[in-house]
Specification:
The complex is a heterodimer of chains A (757) and B (670). Chain A has 757 residues and is α+β, with helices and mostly antiparallel strands. Helix content of chain A is 34%, strand content 24%. By secondary structure, chain B is mostly helical. In chain B, 53% of the residues lie in helices and 6% in strands. The longest helix of chain B is centred in the first third of the chain and has 28 residues. Classes of the chains: A alpha+beta (757), B mainly alpha (670).
Chain lengths: 757, 670
């Protein structure tokens, strides 16, 4: 475990160093493509080679700006390293060069990538800064310009200065209308594609007007054209409408995101040529400049996409994902199950000796564990990331699991699961998070009053461990020592745990049921012991509300994500994160581990889902298509698919291997707060704020896919609208939003929520 | 569309006057207009920003309402100190008003009377968060495991013991239990009965998809046809499931059986269970056939039981009865006007049944009468016609008058009061003439007291004071003098009410409202249920009054207000008759409209001075019910009422009425 921790610090460093750049010139979104191309760790040299080769004049300016930033912060060593890596001459850092870099209009918003940096030398700095409370660095950098820290000011102004170029403010309307007219007159097949540029153009033009203090023109512009924008940008437009002064721009996160990340559009070559020709003919430089500087147009060869195809994929804060962002191989297969002998009933589990093995082969054949004996070609190697060793108790639990699995009900459209609803009463709208243990024996709730409560839903009551003095009296050799350490006097059906100082938004049981994690508004993630019912660790680092946290399916690791837009990977025995996943442009609203524990998926208010490689810390998938903040994620049990639910009431299905959207399930009318696949992946259950549980035919949704299409380079899918066929059932509660779903090991669906009178 | 949206986006800015006002409040006078504009724009922008952040907290708090704590948290995000002192958890106290082109949200502050606050009992302590359901669910599990299980049975051991949950769905079907929403809402039922062709029933459509397994192959065809042709109302078969059949059997048996405790539970179930929609036609037929048979056999007790069933059905907030009125109304009217309802008309108290049925009739007129079905006018005509008939017997006469009187003071004013003189003469003929038959005499007496009771309060409002006996005699004939004293009492009573709002109070509670006065048998209902009923799954949960669980609200209990004033003349012998004949038939009498104006305040006026009441010749007890949140002991009631009966006259009468307690029974989760 330590090895990973150590190994990780390297990547961690590389990631971290990117962050200072975020406030100045960081183009986080643009980064990802680059980061992916560089293989992590040992191959860093190749990565850096690529970069030096690819240094364009613009990039060079960026590099210079970074160097200047480092120098200003007296990080001479890093300056030296970076300079060497980038192959820049010693004197490149003279003030003159700097000035040109700073003044370069759009150039500053380039790419910063320190992938090749010598990690160890930077270690001291990073660890220093992160442990020093991470106040300034995290807040200042990750939050980008949000906190207008004094030292950020120059950098922010660099970002905004891109807007300083002035055209005649009264002509903006004309330009925009011209373009609108043009796009309305092009052939139908191009119109839909070219219409994509409206929204980013509109926003940038509006911001330019605002930045240059043309308040009334900006307002007029907004009023004239905001109605034309796609309805799924409503939320962003609302924020934009409030912003009418240059001073407002400084502190506005949404804006800075829009500025610092290029809006990505996918347009076919033909359509693009059409647009380019038109703008050049008209000498419409204003618009052409914006397109060049602020938009990233991902040109593909082939048929232009239809309106529905475009609508399916758009909606995120920064446009679609670039195609190459989703090209990295993802090992989505499952890990081999550890070989545990399934003992016959009369045998003792502990007796796992060699001579016993041949005898026990027989019962093992039927067990679920035997299925995974063959190595899945898509699975990561068993020790790609170090996993905790199985304890005896874990093995016992695995055996229990297999036994239960044999009694599992096969679900399907003809055999729907029963839904059992756990209602929290008298919660007074204060229930914010729920989790159930894998064996469905405990249920935990996080509440707005900062408490965490655990209930036992079996007759077995919750007991604490005896006090140290009493423990001394116990005969440690006895067989039932585990039973003896428990204090009968403390037995109760529920326990309350106090510790947080703000609403608890995320909660997760460890797979071994010994720990519970909770994340809260107070910026901490807490680890609780379910033996003593006390807090063991408070993991600090986020500093802002932590919206979600989840344990790895193998325990030990956990992930958290929150308002500071980064997700962190932790190990329970480290008080600092092992990885920081940075790239989202808005709050991370939900986090989920891949079943093989090698990847983490995060959903965000920027309406994208990202998949992160735990090993390298890189973003390996970006999924766009949701039209609202994503509030729930679920991996299919075979690890191949991901389902996501958002405030827009839609569930989207994603093929992880191909990096494509493969389904859309419409039906809910409000935020979907919980998603869960049945144990064998046949049924997808979704629970929503609209007081319903819906069941969907996941088998059919995935079987109908024509996977051949995916190999086509375009990666454009055509989704048929078959939600109604896939919807197997809708179950309405009286007045209880469904905020958690859980399939028991035998495929009974448990749902939970707080009654809302 | 675009227009609307654009309007939505228009940036709203706080008026500069507010800036000035705020500046003055912190001691800055003479703020320049420019500064105001700048400030208001800045402030508006910041407020919007904070509101947008606060929304984030609302979403993560899994709520639909923005609370003050969300705003506090949003301020914290910006490193601004939260606003202290705003602690409304859930309730946002703003009210909306518009008028004169202005829209206004304001904070409603009502004037509070301190004495009211002091006199109101303390609210219940808020309950702690809990996950527990109650015992009835416990057994419920067991049954569903038996009925539905192939795989489910395995879970039974876990779930039976844990029992904090309920079944939202069982193998794809949603069971009709109180925790789940009713299969068809009342609105749907109403829409279905009024506009049968237009209705799209979401419930049924959903069910269709749920049962997709059986219809899987036929659905596409059906859909296609439906779209192409006129939308025909699908013929629905009403097959009851095994549990529903069992439930029906158990409920109907309990309703007409001999055990009062069981009956109370069954009626409670009918009145509260949300899943009875499909059984409604059965119940309706059961009642109508039951009345038909038992009227012929003069079985008063059974008729009363059936009427109580009607009452329970009408009380069920999830049922819409209109489709079954053709069966129910004849049954109810029969119980009002039938010549003979019991074997011994001289002894048995069939009058109470007539009163009760009359009230039911009035209730259904109120609820269901529309311009198309004209129930009220048809019923009024029916009653008037037979009343006007000279040959009509006293029993029927009584029923007609009761039926009319219950329809409200307008009906009394226009139809009954003009006939008081005629009716008085008829009564006089019986009372003072040669003794024809005892039965006629009793009938006349009852009609007399009924008329006095209903008319007094109406006349009290109609006629100006002073009340002159002679004037009354000329206006109303034989009944005049009695009427006069009644009216005077009604007036003093109204005056007393106005004065004595803050007198000492006495609350009497009862687990549920029923027709009967003697309810000693009911006390068992709040205790453990009898095992015989537990056999049936549906009946069991549905009937449960759910006692003792913190999670669920107590059953819609009723508080009675007992008030005493002096009342008209009657003999004490009748009181004895009444109580002795009470064994089977419960007693009620109607509430005069005066009491309906009573505010739901609990008080006992007589309690203040026993001497006062003793000095008066007669006493009138008015018992008005109130919905109560806490069900206190039944013993209180049973110990108080008998004593008051003994000192009261029959004519003053016991007045029991169950007040409509909206929401009292809708609180149970799911």
């Amino acid at each position: 475990d330590m090895s990973l921790a150590k190994q990780s610090t390297d990547y961690f460093v590389t990631l971290y160093t990117k962050q200072p750049s975020a406030d100045g010139f960081g183009n986080n979104n643009a980064n990802d493509g680059r980061v992916l191309s560089a293989s992590p760790g040992s191959s860093s040299s190749t990565g850096s080679n690529k970069q030096t080769a690819a240094v364009t004049p613009e990039d060079q300016q960026t590099l210079l700006a970074v160097l200047q930033f480092l120098k200003k912060n007296k990080l001479s060593e890093s300056v030296e390293i970076l300079r060497r890596e980038a192959g820049l001459p010693e004197n490149s850092l003279d003030p003159k060069a700097n000035e040109s870099a700073g003044a370069g209009s759009g150039g500053a918003a380039g790419i910063v990538d320190l992938e090749g940096g010598d990690a160890s030398s930077l270690l001291s700095r990073v660890t220093g800064s992160s442990s020093a409370g991470a106040q300034a660095p995290t807040k200042g950098t990750v939050q980008s310009g949000c906190s207008a820290v004094a030292e950020d000011q120059p950098d922010v102004s660099v970002v905004l200065s891109a807007y300083s170029q002035q055209g005649d403010p009264t002509l903006y309307k004309v330009y925009y209308r011209d373009l609108k007219k043009f796009i309305e007159t092009v052939l139908d097949c191009h119109r839909a594609e070219l219409s994509q540029v409206f929204y980013p153009l509109f926003v940038h033009m509006y911001l330019e007007l605002v930045y240059n203090n043309h308040e009334s023109e900006a307002k007029a512009f907004f009023e004239k054209f905001s109605g034309d924008q796609e309805c799924y940008y409503e939320e962003d437009l609302r924020i934009l409408s409030g912003l009418t002064k240059k001073e407002h721009m400084r502190g506005n996160e949404t804006l800075l995101d829009f500025r610092t990340s290029k809006f990505v559009l996918r347009i076919s070559r033909d359509s693009y040529q059409l647009l380019k020709r038109h703008l050049q003919e008209r000498q419409n430089n204003q618009i052409w400049n914006i397109i060049q500087e602020h938009l990233y147009i991902d040109i593909f060869d082939g048929m232009p996409r239809s309106k529905s195809q475009i609508d399916a994929m758009s909606g995120s804060l920064a446009g679609e994902a670039k195609r190459e962002a989703n090209k990295t191989k993802v090992y989505y297969g499952l890990l081999k199950e550890p070989e545990i002998e399934l003992p016959l009933d009369d045998e003792d589990e502990e007796a796992e000796n060699e001579e016993g093995k041949p005898k026990k082969k027989k019962p093992k054949k039927d067990s679920v564990g035997s299925k995974s004996k063959k190595q899945d070609p898509n699975a990561p190697s068993q020790n790609r990331i170090p996993l905790p060793e199985l304890k005896d108790s874990d093995k016992l639990d695995k055996i229990m699991y297999m036994k239960e699995a044999t009694k599992r009900i096969r679900l399907g459209p003809d055999n729907l699961p029963s839904v059992c609803f756990y209602t929290f009463l008298n919660a007074y709208q204060g229930l914010t998070a729920v989790d159930l243990t894998d064996d469905s024996s405990l249920i935990a709730g996080g509440f707005a009053d900062s408490t965490v409560r655990v209930w036992s839903v079996t007759p077995k009551k919750l007991r604490k461990v005896k006090s140290a003095a009493d423990l001394n009296l116990i005969d440690k050799e006895s067989d039932d020592v585990l039973e003896r350490i428990m204090d009968e006097k403390t037995a109760s059906e529920s326990k309350i745990m106090y510790g947080h100082s703000g609403p608890v938004y995320g909660i997760s049981f460890s797979p071994d049921r010994n720990y519970l994690l909770s994340s809260s508004e107070d910026g901490t993630v807490r680890l609780w012991s379910l033996l003593t019912f006390t807090c063991l660790v408070a993991y600090k680092g986020h500093n802002y509300p932590v919206w979600d946290t989840q344990f790895s399916p193998y325990g030990y690791y956990f992930v958290s994500g929150g308002h500071d837009r980064v997700a962190r990977l932790w190990a329970t025995d480290h008080y600092q994160p092992l990885r920081i996943f940075s790239g989202h442009l808005a709050d991370i609203t939900c986090t989920r581990f891949h079943p093989n524990s090698n990847y983490v998926a995060t959903g965000s208010s920027d309406r994208t889902i990202r998949l992160w490689d735990v090993l390298s810390g890189n973003c390996v998938r970006i999924f766009t298509g949701h039209k609202g903040p994503i509030h729930s994620l679920a991996f299919s049990p075979n690890g191949k698919f991901l389902a996501s639910g958002a405030t827009d009431g839609r569930v989207l299905l994603w093929d992880i291997g191909h990096g494509l959207m493969v389904g859309e399930l419409k039906g809910h009318t409000d935020t979907i707060y919980s998603l869960r696949f049945s144990r064998d992946g046949e049924i997808l259950a979704s629970g929503s704020m609209d007081n319903t549980v819906r069941l969907w035919d996941a088998m059919k949704a995935f079987d109908d896919l024509e996977t051949d299409d995916f190999t086509a380079a375009t990666g454009h899918i055509h989704l048929q609208d078959n939600s109604q066929e896939l919807l197997l059932g809708t179950y309405t509660t009286k007045s209880t939003p469904v905020i958690h779903l859980h399939f028991t090991r035998r495929n009974l669906l448990l749902a939970a929520g707080a009654f809302n009178p | 569309m675009a227009e609307e949206r654009r309007q939505k986006h228009c940036s709203v800015v706080l008026p500069t006057e507010s800036m000035k006002a705020m500046a003055e409040s912190v001691g800055v006078g003479q703020l320049q207009e420019d500064s105001c504009v700048a400030l208001s724009e800045e402030v508006s922008y910041r407020i919007k920003e904070i509101a947008q952040d606060a929304l984030k907290f609302m979403h993560h708090g899994k709520r639909r309402k923005l609370t003050t704590s969300d705003i506090d948290n949003a301020l914290k995000l910006k490193n601004v100190e939260p606003l202290y002192g705003f602690q409304s958890q859930e309730f946002i106290p703003f009210r909306f008003a518009s008028g004169g082109g202005r829209e206004l949200h304001f904070y409603e502050e009502k004037e509070a009377d301190l004495s009211d606050i002091i006199n109101t009992p303390l609210p219940r302590v808020p309950l702690d968060v809990s996950l527990k359901g109650n015992q009835s669910q416990y057994i419920y599990f067991l049954f569903f495991c038996i009925f539905f299980s192939n795989g489910i049975f395995n879970f039974y051991s876990v779930l039976v013991c844990s029992s904090p949950a309920h079944w939202l769905s069982i193998e794809g079907m949603q069971p009709a239990i109180p925790e789940n929403p009713p299969p068809a809402t009342k609105e749907q039922q109403k829409a279905e009965s009024t506009e049968p062709l237009k209705v799209v029933k979401p419930g049924q459509e959903e069910e269709g998809t749920i049962q997709g397994k059986s219809q899987g192959t036929t659905t596409p065809d059906g859909k296609g046809k439906e779209k192409g042709l006129i939308r025909l109302k699908p013929r629905s078969t009403h097959e009851l499931s095994v549990e529903q059949q069992l439930y029906y059997k158990e409920i109907t048996e309990a309703c007409v059986g001999s055990c009062e405790a069981k009956r109370a539970e069954a009626l409670q179930s009918i009145a509260t269970d949300p899943g009875l929609y499909q059984m409604l036609p059965r119940f309706s037929t059961f009642i109508s056939e039951g009345v038909r048979v038992n009227v012929v056999q003069n079985n008063l007790a059974l008729l009363i039981y059936l009427m109580r069933m009607v009452k329970a059905l009408m009380d069920n907030p999830t049922l819409y009865l209109e489709k079954y009125l053709h069966e129910l109304i004849p049954a109810v009217v029969t119980c009002i006007v039938s010549k003979q309802l019991c074997l011994r008309p001289d002894v048995d108290n069939h009058w109470a049944l007539r009163d009760f049925a009359a009230r039911l009739m009035a209730q259904s007129c109120k609820t269901f009468s529309t311009t198309t079905n004209n129930i009220q006018s048809r019923i009024t005509k029916t009653f008037t016609k037979s009343w006007l008939d000279d040959k009509t017997q006293w029993t029927t006469r009584y029923g007609c008058i009761a039926g009319l009187a219950e329809l409200g003071s307008d009906v009394i004013k226009t139809l009954i009061i003009p006939r008081l003189a005629v009716e008085g003469a008829r009564i006089k003929a019986v009372m003072e003439g040669p003794v024809v038959s005892n039965i006629d005499k009793i009938g006349a007496e009852h009609v007399q007291s009924l008329l006095l009771k209903h008319c007094a309060s109406v006349i009290a409002k109609l006629r100006p004071q002073p009340d002159n006996v002679d004037q009354y005699r000329t206006d109303y004939g034989y009944l005049g003098p009695m009427l006069c004293s009644h009216v005077m009492k009604a007036r003093t009573q109204a005056a007393l009410q106005a004065q004595q709002v803050n007198r000492t109070t006495l609350t009497i509670t009862q687990p549920r409202p029923t027709l009967s006065v003697s309810q000693s048998g009911l006390s068992g209902s709040s205790g453990p249920r009898t095992p015989s009923i537990i056999k049936v799954p549906s009946s069991l949960t549905l009937m449960s009054p759910r006692p003792g669980t913190p999670s669920q609200p107590s059953p819609p209990a009723t508080k009675y207000i007992v008030m005493a004033t002096s009342a008209g003349a009657a003999s004490t012998q009748q009181v004895i008759t009444l109580s002795s004949s009470q064994s089977a038939s419960p007693v009620t009498s109607t509430v005069p409209s005066a009491t309906s104006t009573l505010q739901p305040l609990v008080k006992l006026e007589s309690g203040s001075g026993a001497g006062l009441t003793a000095s008066r010749p007669l006493q009138k007890y008015i018992v008005v019910s109130l919905p109560s949140s806490a069900s206190s002991s039944l013993e209180t009631k049973s110990s108080v009422l008998p004593t008051s009966i003994s000192s009261s006259s029959l004519d003053g009468g016991m007045k029991l009425e169950r007040s409509e307690s909206p929401g009292a029974s809708t609180q149970s989760p799911h």
